[in-house]
């Protein structure tokens, strides 16, 4: 079945870095746009970044210049390199598959918690 | 900050009907862009509930229905059940933003 599994979250100090991974299975990964969406208690769901099947990427203004999305189609994996982390980046980060030719997300991974704190 | 506004909470007794509104602007719902809905059960990831305003993925009960009109969309739950207690989010494309769209502020449904 279609499955997404995130990993790489954890506790990091402000200014630090973290790399999230998302392992995909059950579908032809290279055909799909993939995205990272985060959720904080106070701000709900927020689109972070997404990458097209061709490798082009888009970022939310709040992470532009600090986060980098990438993918390795040979490994069916999506990544999010997060640098210069801030306390406001604390959230659960979800990996999600974007529907072909449309903009809804299904499925979502289980999420990985990133905590930025000194 | 989301550009799609939802009521923070709605509640209903088992068997009742509740509706959740998602209010947008002329750059998203009002421009004719489709609305999608997600259900997030406690402690789990969001799950697609409704796509393209009114379509249910396989496995979603027909108690859930969606609609869109003007600058708003609505999610209705009829025959409310205890397992429907969850957070619900709308999503739409916005022409003023880059990327696949924006999410609503979220609504907690209490049964």
Topology, pairings included?
The complex is a heterodimer of chains A (118) and B (111).
Chain A: E1 3-7, E2 10-12, E3 18-25, E4 34-40, E5 44-51, E6 57-59, E7 67-72, E8 77-82, E9 91-98, E10 105-108, E11 112-116
Parallel strand pairs in A: 2-11
Antiparallel strand pairs in A: 1-3, 3-8, 4-5, 4-9, 5-6, 7-8, 9-10, 9-11
Chain B: E1 9-11, E2 18-23, E3 35-40, E4 47-50, E5 64-69, E6 72-77, E7 86-92, E8 102-103, E9 107-110
Parallel strand pairs in B: 1-9
Antiparallel strand pairs in B: 2-6, 3-4, 3-7, 5-6, 7-8, 7-9
Average pLDDT level of chain B: 95
Helix content of chain A: under 10%
**Biggest interface between chains:** A-B, 25 and 25 residues
**Regions of chain B with pLDDT < 50 over 5+ consecutive residues?**
none
Number of discrete helical segments of chain A:
0
- Number of β-strand runs of chain A: 11
Summarize this, please?
By secondary structure, chain A is mainly β. Chain A has strands at 3-7, 10-12, 18-25, 34-40, 44-51, 57-59, 67-72, 77-82, 91-98, 105-108, 112-116. Chain A is globular and about 40 Å long.
Would you give an account of this structure?
The complex is a heterodimer of chains A (118) and B (111). The model of chain A has no long low-confidence stretch (mean pLDDT 95). Chain A is mainly beta and 118 residues long. Chain A contains no helices and 11 strands. In chain B, the strands form 2 sheets. In chain B, strands 1, 3, 4, 7, 8 and 9 form a 6-stranded mixed β-sheet that branches. Helix content of chain B is 0%, strand content 40%. Chain B starts with 8 loop residues before the first strand and ends with a strand.
């Amino acid at each position: 079945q279609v499955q997404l599994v995130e990993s790489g979250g954890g506790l990091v100090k402000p200014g630090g870095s973290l790399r999230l991974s998302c392992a995909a299975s059950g579908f032809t990964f290279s055909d799909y746009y993939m995205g990272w969406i985060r959720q904080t208690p106070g701000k709900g769901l927020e689109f972070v970044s997404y990458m097209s099947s061709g490798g082009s990427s888009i970022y939310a203004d709040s992470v532009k210049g600090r986060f980098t999305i990438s993918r390795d189609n040979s490994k069916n994996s999506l990544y999010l390199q997060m640098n210069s982390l801030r306390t406001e980046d604390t959230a659960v980060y979800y990996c999600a598959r974007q529907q072909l030719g449309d903009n809804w997300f299904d499925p979502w991974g289980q999420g990985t918690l990133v905590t930025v704190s000194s | 900050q989301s550009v799609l506004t939802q009521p923070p909470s709605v509640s209903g007794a088992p068997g009742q009907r509740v509706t959740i509104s998602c209010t947008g602007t002329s750059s998203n719902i009002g421009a004719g862009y489709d609305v999608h809905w997600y259900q997030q059960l406690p402690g789990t990831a969001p799950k697609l509930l409704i796509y393209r305003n009114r379509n249910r993925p396989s496995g979603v009960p027909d108690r859930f229905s969606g609609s869109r009109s003007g600058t708003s969309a609505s999610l209705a739950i009829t025959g409310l059940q205890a397992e429907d207690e969850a957070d619900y989010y709308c999503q739409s494309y916005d022409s003023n933003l880059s990327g696949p769209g924006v999410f609503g502020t979220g609504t907690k449904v209490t049964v």
